[in-house]
Design goal:
276 residues, mainly alpha, MetI-like fold, 2 domains, 11 helices, 4% strand, disordered C terminus, transport
């Protein structure tokens, strides 16, 4: 056996050892959702939540479809707001000179590395004072303030990679700075905008912690928050079949989303853009 074959064998064995537990968990996930543990037969009984509210062991949750609508509206709102703020902010940090720019950049970097969980009590107090507890606006403000520094930092890297000559040429031809941004720069940084849009959507789709802390009305939950209500319910016997069935319902759109957006992830080079 040649040395190359031995190396390949070792690599594949190594990967297989790490993959097997994950594959095992996925198989258990499907089996737990689609088999009746009492009779051992295939059953879709656990998926009844798609046509009626969830009720078991004293747990009452609303019908799933309004929750799906909440999830989509919340996720797309986060995407739109983050792009609307991150793109012009990143352009300013990349292209403009202004007082305090270096300090603001360092502050952004610090905010990226600061664990948000340590601010949760202060955040809750502020939301109470602003009467924003149990409102979408409160959750959106907290979510965006936590993720926006990272989005701006990534977008700045994309703007930095666009040659100055292109923007100057557009302005020499009569474009205003805003028109040069929209007509010349934005097409070059579209991979970056796509990347932060994908990150923002995935972050919003999977957000459950803020909903657990700041939302007390079950009708206002998103899918992740809905699932967390079942998983974290205290003093209640877990219905694993129901939880895994809702987990599948929650995960499958995410898997499809990953399949269609994986090229966007490949275009992201932290701190810059390969496509510019």
């Amino acid at each position: 056996m040649s040395t190359t074959t031995v190396k390949k064998l070792l690599v594949h064995t190594y990967l297989l050892l790490f993959t097997m537990p994950i594959v095992g968990m996925i198989i258990w996930y499907f089996l737990s959702a689609t088999f009746n543990s009492t009779t051992g037969q295939f059953s879709l009984e656990n998926f009844n939540f798609v046509k009626e509210p969830v009720e078991y062991a004293g747990v009452n949750l609303p019908a799933i479809w309004p929750i799906v609508l909440n999830t989509l509206v919340y996720s797309f709102l986060i995407v739109v707001i983050e792009i609307f703020i991150a793109v012009p902010a990143a352009y300013a940090f990349s292209r403009l000179d202004f007082k305090g720019k270096l300090g603001a950049m360092k502050f952004l970097f610090l905010m990226r590395s600061f664990p948000g969980i340590t601010l949760i009590i202060a955040t809750f107090f502020i939301l109470v004072q602003m009467n924003l507890v149990n409102t979408y606006l409160g959750v959106i403000l907290v979510a965006i303030s936590g993720s926006l520094p990272g989005r701006v930092y990534i977008m700045k890297g994309f703007f930095d990679e666009v040659p100055w000559d292109l923007e100057w040429a557009a302005m020499v031809d009569g474009c205003t700075r805003f028109r040069a941004l929209m007509k010349v720069l934005v097409p070059y940084v579209l991979p970056g905008i796509g990347a932060i849009a994908v990150f923002a959507f995935l972050g919003a789709y999977g957000e459950w912690f803020l909903f657990k802390l700041f939302i007390f009305d079950d009708n206002m939950l998103t899918l992740a928050g809905y699932l967390s209500r079942l998983v974290t319910k205290e003093n209640v016997i877990m219905n694993y079949g129901l939880i895994t069935a809702i987990g599948l319902f929650y995960t499958i759109p995410l898997v499809v989303f990953y399949i269609f957006t994986q090229k966007v992830f490949l275009k992201v080079n932290l701190g810059g853009a390969k496509q510019v």
